[in-house]
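Chapter review: from sequence to fold.
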Amino acid sequence: MSSEPKIVAAVQWTPEVLNPAAGAEKAAAAVTEAASRGARLVVFPECWLQGYPYWSGLAPSSEEYQAFRQLSFEASIGKDSPVLAPVFAAAASEQCSVVIGFQERVGGTLFCTILFIGPDGKSLGTQRKLIPTQAERLVWGRGDGSDMSVYETPVGRLGALNCFEHQMAPARLALCSLDIQVHAALWPGHAFLNPIVDASMRHLAHENACYVVVAREIMSPDHLPEGLPMSVASRGHWQTQGGSAIVAPGGAYLVDPVLDEETIITAEIDLANIAVNKWFFDGAGHYTRPDVFQLHWDRRPKPAVLTAPQGDDGEQ
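The token string follows.
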């Protein structure tokens, strides 16, 4: 992997709430704009394609919550949906890797999913959030850990986590074991998360000796489409600050957290800077004690129904 410096970007734009087709067009425009600034990797926030479900903090028994729940279900898409075509096309046109959060629907279950796209405009893979946090647990199902991976890209070995997955030490160690070099950190834009994101993203950059591209969305009730079942009392749920940033291995900011504006942030990264940080601490290498601590990671898919081929038991 070449250590020539590359430019990476985080998109801090408002999403097209509950409109994945419009969201895909907007994402494509963001990729094009970021690429015009030299970006070879573009990272979007958590569930950005349909917009993070800020409505999930409402009372589940309320009519407003139930209306949003139905709209959210209808706006969810499969990972192979043609709705995503503009994003794939933009990645190919700009020869740019893309990491974008979207809400995936499989049967009757929704997942908070990360889509990885290579610079050839083809899917590298998807990754479902392992554990939704607090109110999210009534919105999203849980990933099974089989799809966590790190991908070879022109900017480096690329992986990602969503939001409070970053507080899961085993998940961080799992990515470290795959020799991650560039970490896409997808978050929503709640202001109360600012100190948590600051502490955990800088720690991650030190712990895994990697670059961290933090993407957080900016949102306000004024950006919601007309006709949504939103009460006056719930408007505060939709007010967020953003806070996107880019962190170097070791924990220093290349771009400090940016608040209260729509923007695309960029920074130049150089993989050669990883080596000195690994020299001090390699959490899956020389700084381990497997005779004391070991992580067991079951990467097998875990379907709810296992179907044997017909005739295996002589009864089908």
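Two observations follow directly from the output. The two ends are 51 Å apart (CA to CA). The chain has a mean pLDDT of 95.
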